[in-house]
Amino acid sequence: MKKKINILDSNVFYTFLAIIIGFIIGALFLMVAKVSPAAAYGKLISGVFGKPKYMIWTLVYASPLIFTGLSVAFSLRTGVFNIGAEGQFVVGSLAAVFVGIVFKLPPVLHAIVAILAAAAAGFVWSYLVGLMKVKRGNHEVLSYIMFNWIAFYLSNYLVNTELLHKEGDGEATKNVMDSARILFPEGLRNALGCNAANWGFILAVLVAVAIWIIIEKTTLGYKLKAVGFNKDAANYGGINSDRSILTAMGISGMLAGVGGAVQLLGMGARISQFAGQEGFGFQGITVALIAGSNPIGCIFSGIFYGAMKYGGSKLTMVGAPEEVIDIIMGCVIIFIAVAQVFKRLFKSFGKKKEA
Amino acid sequence: MDNLIMNLGLLINATLVATPPLLLAAIGSSFSERSGVINLGIEGMMTMGAFAGAAIGLVVGNGWVAFLFGGLAGALLAVIHAIVCIQFQADQTIAGTAINFIGPGLALFLSKAIFKSTDTPPLSAAQKLPKMFDGVFEAGSFWGNVLNVYTVAYLVFIFAFIAWFVFYKTKFGAHLRAVGEHPEACESLGIDVYKVRYTCVILSGFMSGLGGAFVTLATINQFRPSVIVGQGFIAIAAVIFGKFSPGGAMKACLLFGFCGGVKSIITMSNVISPNLISMIPYVVTILALLLFSGKNHTPAANGKIFVKSK
């Protein structure tokens, strides 16, 4: 029998379909709100591609999302669902803000130490959940959710402590020292027209490639995938599945933690007290799903989400509520989640036609 | 001494204010979880209910009608969750995450579209839910403080009792518990697994919507982006902590509601950071998870995909 490469078999096709459906649903809501979808989506596109500096901004927005996306994608490849990237992102930025404010180190080294601290914090935050899973059999999704909220309130608490809190009023930490920032040199930033242009995106691409190599080209990656594919078979084949799961969850947490550092040292410079979760971790779930859990794919889906966030922030100019982005992205997740059903449907339809 | 009793009264009152939204959502969540469908979208459904409650309250002017519509708004999101999870067998955790994007997104979107702001205008007393003993006790007296709560705050405990009754004393309850443990066996006995699960998931959305609407129609008098922050997840925590039974969930909600009460009182006096108190429900649930482990209370088919055989 001839093996045809069918477009209907390709996951990429369904992902694009999901995105298109998401935009159509978004358009319907815009029409309900009496905003022209053409005007809103036009603004979204011109807001991202209109000027070179807009594209730089998009990459700045994308950088932390690529990290949380990688974090979730890496966990999914091992059969674990890191819904806790949100919390790991928060503890990562907390560690980085601590190093950035308290330590006195020369430039470059300071930033590296801050990022490593964030990586360690994210690692531990996720590893604890891993221990609960492996040692006590607690499902990771529930523990991760609890850890997310503990991290959220921990951050709001620490922001107001004497050590970190900025002088005067306002519920935020001091700014981290300039030596800890990962900004491009001032001349380059001015040339790019983006005062927050930073090394985060380049770091994200490098890490994505590294993660791809780990998953696809190393024994560790092979073991992790084997456990994700079939835990019992992997165990039988001599792989210690518990240790693999712990490693995967630790690395996954580390990636989200670094994402927190990149956002902090690149863009924000300080942490504020928040009324609600910021959502970088949850957005990472979307990034990973759009990428089909492929690390390289996360770069592109991260840029896509970054563009949606940055472009979305300009939607108010045409009178469109920016929350339409959340609606679109939520719909995209749902349609990617049910893509398998579409796949079956289309295939059975195709078969009937052949017969 | 008088002062102490007075504060005790305020504390009980604050607990009675903080518990209902959690308990309503937790009752709903226990139905969904026990029928075998994980519903992580409770938070999004509560936010939608909170907005719909406030919006309908402003338009219609009747708190009870608005409360009901809050429930319906939550149920509407739950219908999406049910179709995606039951009919299309999608990953329930991921679907719930999507609901948590859509619910708050839609609520804020509609608020901006209708009221031109993320906050709705404040509701007048007549547009809110009524208080049962309004004016019966002297304002500021012990009983005046304790019972200065909305009628729904008492109703929720009756709801919890009804939920317990449905769970353990009715045929539907037996079916829903069985469906969450062993759907295949249920199907062979002629139980319509999909129908039971649809009912439970939509009910969970309705109850969550009511919980959200309680916040805007009773506790606070308007919808703002920050009215629902974590209550949905505390409700899920309460269900886990309460070992997946309505009675257990009620006790857990009272405990977590008490934390919420302590928090709202302490915020005024500045003794301990309210942020640390806010952590308690989550920390306690983690500890409970660690202690319970070994004895598994999670319904066996929870989160597992079930495909009808025909």
Describe the structure.
The complex is a heterodimer of chains A (355) and B (310). By secondary structure, chain A is mainly α. Chain A has one domain (52-311): ABC transporter involved in vitamin B12 uptake, BtuC. Chain A starts with 10 loop residues before the first helix and ends with a helix. Chain A has helices at 11-32, 37-49, 52-77, 85-102, 109-136, 140-159, 186-192, 200-217, 219-229, 231-236, 241-268, 280-290, 295-312, 324-337, 339-354. The longest helix of chain A has 28 residues, at 109-136. In chain A, helix 1 packs antiparallel against helix 14, helix 2 crosses helix 13 (295-312) and helix 5 (109-136) packs antiparallel against helix 6 (140-159). Chain A has 15 helices and no strands. Chain B is mainly alpha-helical and 310 residues long. The relative contact order of chain B is 0.22. Helices cover 72% and strands 0% of the residues of chain B. Chain B has a single domain, classed as Orthogonal Bundle (ABC transporter involved in vitamin B12 uptake, BtuC). Chain B contains twelve helices and no strands. The model of chain B has no long low-confidence stretch (mean pLDDT 89). Chains A and B meet through helix 6, helix 12 and helix 14 of A and helix 4, helix 10 and helix 12 of B.
Fill in the keyword field for this structure.
heterodimer; A: 355 residues; mainly alpha; ABC transporter involved in vitamin B12 uptake, BtuC; 15 helices; 0% strand; globular; B: 310 residues; 12 helices; 72% helix
